[in-house]
Amino acid sequence: MTASRAFRHSNLVAQATRDRVLVAATELSYVPNLLARGLVQNCTATVGVVVLELANPFFIPMVSAIESIVSKRGLLVITGESGRDEGKERQYVEQFQQFRVGGIIVSPTSSRLDHLAAVRASGTPVVVMARQWEHGDYVATDDAMGGRLVAEHLLRRGHRRIGLVRREDPSHDPVRDRVLGFRRTLAAAEIKVPDEWDIRVPGSQIAHGVEAVERLLLASERPSAIFVTSDRMALGVVNRLLEQGIRVPEDVVVIGYDDIPYAACARVPLTTVAIPVHLLGEISAGILLSRLDGAARAEPSRVLLSPELVIRASCP
Amino acid sequence: MTASRAFRHSNLVAQATRDRVLVAATELSYVPNLLARGLVQNCTATVGVVVLELANPFFIPMVSAIESIVSKRGLLVITGESGRDEGKERQYVEQFQQFRVGGIIVSPTSSRLDHLAAVRASGTPVVVMARQWEHGDYVATDDAMGGRLVAEHLLRRGHRRIGLVRREDPSHDPVRDRVLGFRRTLAAAEIKVPDEWDIRVPGSQIAHGVEAVERLLLASERPSAIFVTSDRMALGVVNRLLEQGIRVPEDVVVIGYDDIPYAACARVPLTTVAIPVHLLGEISAGILLSRLDGAARAEPSRVLLSPELVIRASCP
DNA sequence: ATGAAAGCGCTAACAC
DNA sequence: GTGTTAGCGCTTTCAT
C-alpha cells in the first residue's frame, strides 16, 4: 500500500519511506502495472483518436497537436485510421472502450453519430473533430464559408466558366459543405458548373488531381477556372495542366483547399483556403481534458472555426 | 466462464450457448474489459510506436503502414513523439511497458539504445526503425549510400563548388551518415565543402531551408550546387533562391533527400533521393508480428534498404 | 460442454 | 504515516 502511495506521489507517505520504496523498485526493476490500476478505476490515462486517414496533411497536424497536448498530462494517445469506412470507425471506438480509454476524439466518416452518443452516455467523454455534432462537443470549420470565399474570389476576377474537382464521397460532409457554399454563391451570380466540368475522383491524392485533369480535358470546352477541394489534388491538377501546355494562371486559374505547407512551394504557388488544422486538434484536446477534469455534465462545447482565403500565384 | 469462452470464439462452447451469451451481452450493453485480460496475461493487444516527429512526411508513411498492418491482427497502435528528446523517448518506452504493450517499434533519437536492450531483455519485442541496432531487430536505409548517390550525380555533372544544408543534430545518425557518404565521395574527387557553405539549421521545416539560403548568401562566393539533407528544407531553399532571382537549376542546382510526394510538384521539381519509407514501416511491423507469434528467440533481423536517386528539374 | 476456485497487481475504504 | 481487507473482471487450472 505504501509503495502504491509512493509511486503516486501521495503526500501521505514520509519522504524517507518514499525513497526506500523507489530504491527497492529500481533494484527489483519493478514496472508499475497500469492495467491493474485501470481495472480498479475502470479507466486508463489514454486518449483514443480516430481519423479518416493518418497519412493526410489535413489530419496530421490535428493528431500531432492532440498528442502534444495530452502527453503533457501523461496521457498516451492510441490512434486509429478509419479509411472512411464507418464499420472500421465503429470498431475502433468499440476497441477503445474495451481498453477503457479516458476519452475519445473522432473525426467521423459519416454524419451518423449514434455510436458516439452511446459511448458518451456510457460515461466516456467524446469530442467530434472536423465535423459538427448536434448532441455533443465538437470542433469544426465553417466549410460552407470556405466554399463561398473561393466562389467570391473567382467572381471578383470575372470568371464565369468554372470547373470543380472533388473527391467522390457523398458521406463526407466537409467536402459536401465546401461544394455547397461554392455552388450557392455562384448560383447567386447565375453561374452553374456544368456536368462535364464537375469531376469526381475516387481519392484525394496528388494522382487523383492528375486523373481529374485528364477527364476535364475530354470536355468540349475548357473552363477558365477550377476549384479543387483539396490542395493535394490541386497540386496534381496544376502539374498536369502544365504538362499539357496549359498555363496557370494565364490560361486557367486553380484554387485549392486546406493550405498545406507545400501549397506555397508548388510548381505554381497555390491560391487556397487555409483552415486552422492545428487549432482543430488543440481545441479538441482541450475540451477533452476539461471533460476529464470533471466538467462531465457541462453543456456541449460547439466550436466553429473560420477558414481564410490565401491568395497566391495560381489565382492572383 | 462460459461467457468468457464465448467471446474468445473458443470451440469449447456449444453454438446455442454462445448465441445466448452474445444476446445477453448486447442486452446488458456489456463491453469486454481488455485491461482485466491484460492483467492476467501480462500483455495487451497493442503496439507502441515512438518516432522523432509525427508531423513529418518522413515518418508519416511509416506510422501509417504500421497501423495498417497491425490493425489487421486486431492490435491497437499507441503513438508517441519524442521530438528528438532522448528523455522523452525513454519515457514513452517506459510508459508503454507500464501498459504492457505487446511490442514496441522505435525510431530512436540517438545511438544510445541500452534502454531498448533492457526492454527486450524483459521479454517485450522491440524493433528499431530507421536506424541500425547492433543488438536486435532493425530496419534501416543505407544513408551513406544515399549521400554517395548525390555526390556522384553532382560530380558527373561537373560541379566542384558544392554547398551543404543540414539539420543541426549531431546525434541523429541518418543525417550524419548521409553527410558522411556525401563527403567521402567528394573527397575522393578532392573536393571539400568549405565551412561557409556548410550550413546547419536548427530544424528541418520548409522555413529552415529559407533560413539556410539567407545564411548561404552571406558567403563571399556562391556554390554551383547545394545538397539539402531533406526535401522539406529543399523546398524552402528553392523557393528562397528563386525569390532572390537566383535561377534553379541554371544558376544553382539543388538536390534534396526523402522524395516526399510534394517533391515532384515543387516550384522546381526536386532531384532527390527516394527512400522506401512505407517499406520501413511495413517490414518493422512484420518483424514485430513474427516476434509476437513466438519467434522470440530467433536471431535478430537486420534489414538495410537501398535508397535511389530520382532525377528531376532541380538538378537534371 | 460447463462450472468453481484462485489469483493477476492494483487502489478505495477503513483501521490504527 | 502506515497497514489491512476486499474487490475490480478476467483467464488458468482443474473438476465434473
How would you explain this protein's 3D organization?
The structure is a homodimer of 316-residue chains. Chain A is an alpha/beta fold and 316 residues long. Chain A has helices at 2-7, 15-27, 34-41, 60-71, 86-98, 114-121, 143-156, 173-188, 206-216, 231-243, 277-292; strands at 46-51, 76-81, 103-106, 126-129, 137-141, 162-167, 198-201, 225-228, 253-255, 272-274, 302-305, 308-310. In chain A, the strands form three sheets. Chain A has a six-stranded parallel β-sheet with strand order 2-1-3-4-5-11, with helices on both faces. Chain A has a four-stranded parallel β-sheet with strand order 7-6-8-9, with helices on both faces. In chain A, strands 10-12 form a two-stranded antiparallel ribbon. The radius of gyration of chain A is 24 Å and the shape is elongated. The mean pLDDT of chain A is 95. Strand 2 of chain A pairs antiparallel with strand 2 of chain B, so a sheet runs across the interface. The structure holds a DNA duplex (16 and 16 nucleotides).
Features:
12 strands; elongated; Rossmann fold; homodimer; 4-stranded parallel sheet; 11 helices; 316 residues; DNA-binding; alpha/beta
The biggest beta sheet of chain A is recorded as: 6 strands, parallel
Helix residue percentage of chain A = 40-55%
Count of folded domains of chain A: 3
CATH top level label of the largest domain in chain A = Alpha Beta
State mean pLDDT of chain A (0 to 100 scale): 95
Strand content of chain A is: 15-25%
Identify the overall geometry of chain A: elongated
Architecture of the largest domain in chain A, according to CATH?
Answer: 3-Layer(aba) Sandwich
| Termini Cα gap of chain A | 69 Å
How large is the radius of gyration of chain A?
A: 24 Å
Largest interface: A-B, 51 and 51 residues
The quaternary organization reads as homodimer
CATH superfamily of the largest domain in chain A: Response regulator
Under CATH, the topology of the largest domain in chain A can be stated as Rossmann fold
Number of strands of chain A: 12
Please give the count of helices of chain A.
Answer: 11
Structural class of chain A: alpha/beta
- Spatial order of strands in the largest sheet of chain A: 2-1-3-4-5-11
Low-confidence stretches of chain A: none
Helix-strand topology string of chain A = HHHEHEHEHEEHEHEHEHEEHEE
